[in-house]
C-alpha cells in the first residue's frame, strides 16, 4: 500500500506512530509521514519519506506560546480547552490544505492518523482512500453512559451517579460550545459543511479505531463501536543513550524509583522538586528525567540518592523500577504498566488528569488528584504503595492485558485488513479535492 501517516509533532505522539511506521515499511509498504520538521529524521530513520507542515504552523513543542500565544498563562482545564481550540482545531485547515496538495500530487491508498490530527480527518472527507485513526491518548470517544472525557472524573455509581454523569454531559456541551464553533469555522475554511459528528469524535475514523491501552484502562463502555480495537502499547522512543551513571542502575541493590514530568509543562517545581524532597531520606535510588534531551541538571540542588538525565532508556529502566512517580503522560504510563510498575500520578493538565483517574480506577496506582502535590502527599503515597502489594498485583494484571493487545504487529495486521483501492489503480480525488 501507499500509506500517508499524519502525526502532530509531539514526542508522545511521535513515538507510537513511529513504531507503526517502522513496521509498515518493514512489511514493504510505501509510507509518507506528515509531521513537524523537528521529527523529520525520526521518521526517515524508520524508512519513510517526510512531508513537513507548510500551510499549517510548524511549532516547537517546548515553546508552544511562540506559535500559539493564546496558550500563554493557561493551566488546568483552561489549558486543555485552549490547546484543543487553537493547536488541534484551528491549525487543522492548514493541515488539510497541505495534505490535499500532496493528494493531488501523489494519492495514497490509506490515510493513517492519530486522533488529535483533526486536519487529517478533514482531508479524509475530501479523498477516496480509507482512513484509520490511532488513539495515542486515553480513549476519549464520547459515550452515552460515561462522564465527559478529559475531566479526570470516574463514572458514577447507582442512580445518583448516573444522574450526575448525565448532568456533566449537558454541562460539558455548554462549556465546549466554543470548540464546536471553532470546528465548524475550520471545516468551512477547508471547504466542508458543519461537522456531522460531535467535536469530541472528530478525530475518530468510522472504519477502524486502534486504541492504545486496554479495557481495564478504559471505563466500561456499554456502547463501544464494532470497529474499535485495543492494541496495548505501541512502544517508546528507542536509541536514548545511557547517562554516565547508568551502571548504578544496573547494579543497584536499593529499589529504583523513577520520577518524570514527561515532555510537556516542564516546570520542575510542579512534581520533580517535591518528589525528590519526599524521597531524600528513603533507602532508594531515584532516577529523574528533566524531559528534554541534553538537560541533565535541575535548577536546584538534588539529594544524594538522586541521579538526573534529560531522557532515559525506558525499555531498560522500567524493568528495573520499583515505583514510578509521574505527571501521567500516556506513553510513559503504558510503558510502566507493561513492565508491571505501580504508579503515583500527579496529573494536572491536558489529558493527564484523565490518565491519573483511569490508573487509580484500575487499582494499579495512586491518583494524587493534583498536578502540584507537596512532598508530604508524595511521601504518604509512596509509603502506601510500597506497603500494599495490591498495587503491584494490579499493575502486573494491567501489564498482562496490555501485552495481550498485540502491540505494533497486531495493529498493523488490522490496518492491512482494511479494504483499499487496487494498488494498480490511481485513486481519484473526491469532488472538491
TrEMBL record:
Residues 301-401 form the Erythromycin biosynthesis protein CIII-like C-terminal domain. Signal peptide: none annotated. Coiled coil: none annotated. InterPro entries: EryCIII-like_C, Glycosyltransferase_28, UDP_glucos_trans. This is Glycosyltransferase. It comes from Lysobacter korlensis.
Amino acid at each position: 500500500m501507499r500509506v500517508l501517516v499524519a502525526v502532530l509533532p509531539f514526542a508522545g505522539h511521535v513515538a507510537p506512530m513511529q513504531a507503526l511506521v517502522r513496521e509498515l515499511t518493514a512489511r514493504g509498504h510505501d509510507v509518507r509521514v506528515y509531521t513537524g520538521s523537528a521529527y523529520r529524521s525520526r521518521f526517515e530513520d524508520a524508512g519513510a519519506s517526510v512531508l513537513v507542515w507548510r500551510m499549517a504552523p510548524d511549532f516547537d513543542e517546548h515553546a508552544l506560546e511562540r506559535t500559539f500565544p493564546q496558550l500563554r498563562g493557561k493551566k488546568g482545564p483552561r489549558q486543555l480547552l485552549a490547546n484543543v481550540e487553537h493547536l488541534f482545531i484551528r491549525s487543522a485547515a492548514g493541515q488539510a490544505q497541505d495534505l490535499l496538495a500532496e493528494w493531488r500530487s501523489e494519492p495514497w491508498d490509506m490515510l493513517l492518523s492519530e486522533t488529535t490530527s483533526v486536519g487529517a480527518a478533514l482531508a479524509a472527507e475530501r479523498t477516496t482512500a480509507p482512513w484509520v485513526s490511532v488513539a495515542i491518548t486515553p480513549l476519549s470517544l464520547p459515550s452515552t453512559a460515561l462522564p465527559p472525557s478529559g475531566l479526570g472524573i470516574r463514572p458514577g455509581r447507582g442512580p445518583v451517579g448516573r444522574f450526575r454523569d448525565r448532568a456533566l454531559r449537558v454541562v460539558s456541551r455548554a462549556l465546549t460550545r466554543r470548540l464546536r464553533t471553532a470546528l465548524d469555522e475550520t471545516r468551512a475554511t477547508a471547504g466542508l459543511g458543519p461537522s456531522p459528528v460531535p467535536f469530541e469524535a472528530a478525530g475518530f475514523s468510522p472504519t477502524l479505531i486502534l486504541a492504545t491501552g486496554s479495557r481495564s484502562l478504559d471505563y466500561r463502555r456499554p456502547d463501544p463501536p464494532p470497529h474499535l480495537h485495543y492494541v496495548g502499547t505501541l512502544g517508546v522512543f528507542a536509541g536514548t543513550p545511557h547517562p554516565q551513571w547508568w551502571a548504578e542502575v544496573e547494579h543497584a541493590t536499593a529499589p529504583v524509583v523513577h520520577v518524570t514530568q514527561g515532555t510537556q509543562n516542564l516546570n520542575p517545581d510542579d512534581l520533580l522538586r517535591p518528589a525528590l524532597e519526599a524521597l531524600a531520606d528513603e533507602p532508594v535510588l531515584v532516577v529523574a528525567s528533566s524531559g528534554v534531551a541534553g538537560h541533565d541538571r535541575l535548577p536546584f540542588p538534588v539529594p544524594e540518592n538522586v541521579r538526573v538525565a534529560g531522557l532515559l532508556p525506558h525499555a531498560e529502566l522500567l524493568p528495573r523500577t520499583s515505583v514510578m512517580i509521574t505527571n501521567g503522560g500516556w506513553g510513559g504510563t503504558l510503558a510502566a504498566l507493561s513492565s508491571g510498575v505501580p504508579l503515583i500520578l500527579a496529573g494536572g493538565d491536558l489529558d493527564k488528569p484523565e490518565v491519573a483517574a483511569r490508573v487509580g480506577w484500575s487499582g494499579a496506582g495512586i491518583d494524587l488528584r493534583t498536578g502540584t502535590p507537596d512532598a508530604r502527599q508524595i511521601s504518604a503515597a509512596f509509603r502506601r504503595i510500597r506497603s500494599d502489594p495490591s498495587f503491584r498485583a494490579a499493575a502486573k494484571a494491567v501489564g498482562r492485558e496490555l501485552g495481550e493487545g498485540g502491540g505494533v504487529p497486531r495493529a498493523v495486521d488490522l490496518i492491512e485488513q482494511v479494504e483499499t483501492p487496487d494498488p494498480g489503480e490511481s485513486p481519484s480525488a473526491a469532488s472538491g479535492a
